[in-house]
Design brief:
GO biological process, one term: UDP-N-acetylglucosamine biosynthetic process
GO molecular function: phosphoacetylglucosamine mutase activity
Radius of gyration: 18 Å
Structural class: alpha+beta
Order of helices and strands: HHEEEHEEH
Strand order of the largest sheet: 1-5-4
EC number: 5.4.2.3
Keywords: Isomerase
InterPro entries: A-D-PHexomutase_C, A-D-PHexomutase_C_sf, AMG1_III
Helix content: 25-40%
Strand content: 15-25%
Number of strands: 5
Distance between the termini: 42 Å
Length: 131
C-alpha cells in the first residue's frame, strides 16, 4: 500500500481509497478508525539566528543535515521523552528556525521544544536572548 499513496503531497483521492480498503478489510466503522488515533501534545517555537541558510534539512524537513551535530543533539534529546519527536526547519522568509516538538504530555512537549530551541541557538548562531 505504501506505493499507492504519496505522503509528501497527500493525494486525497488515493488516500481516500486506501482508507476505504482498510475499513473494508478490517470490518471497521469510521468510529473504529477514529479510535486508532490519538493526537499528541505539541509545541512550536522559533529561534532567531544570524543566517537561516545554515540550517539544512532532508527527509521532508524532518532531519537536519547542517549545522554538523545538530541532528545528533536533537536525537539525544528526543530519546529522553516518551512518544516524542522533534524537527527543525529554516523559515522561508526570515532569519528564524522553526522548532516542532511533540511528546506524550503537554509538559514533555514544552520541555523538549525548549531544549531543542536551545541547541539550535547554540549550534546555529542564535542571536538575541537564548530560549
Amino acid at each position: 500500500m505504501v506505493d499507492l499513496i504519496n505522503q509528501t503531497v497527500g493525494d486525497a483521492m488515493s488516500d481516500m481509497l486506501v482508507v476505504e480498503t482498510i475499513l473494508y478489510e478490517r470490518h471497521w466503522s469510521l468510529d473504529d478508525w477514529r479510535a486508532t488515533y490519538t493526537d499528541l501534545p505539541n509545541r512550536q517555537l522559533k529561534v532567531t539566528i544570524k543566517d537561516r541558510t545554515v540550517i539544512q534539512t532532508t527527509d521532508d524537513e524532518r532531519k537536519a543535515t547542517a549545522p554538523e551535530g545538530l541532528q545528533e543533539e536533537i536525537d539525544k534529546l528526543v530519546s529522553g521523552y516518551k512518544s516524542a519527536r522533534s524537527f527543525v526547519r529554516p523559515s522561508g522568509t526570515e532569519d528564524v528556525v522553526r522548532v516542532y516538538a511533540e511528546a506524550d504530555t503537554r509538559e514533555a512537549a514544552d520541555s523538549l521544544a525548549l531544549a531543542v530551541s536551545q541547541k539550535v541557538y547554540d549550534l546555529a548562531g542564535g542571536i538575541g536572548d537564548r530560549p
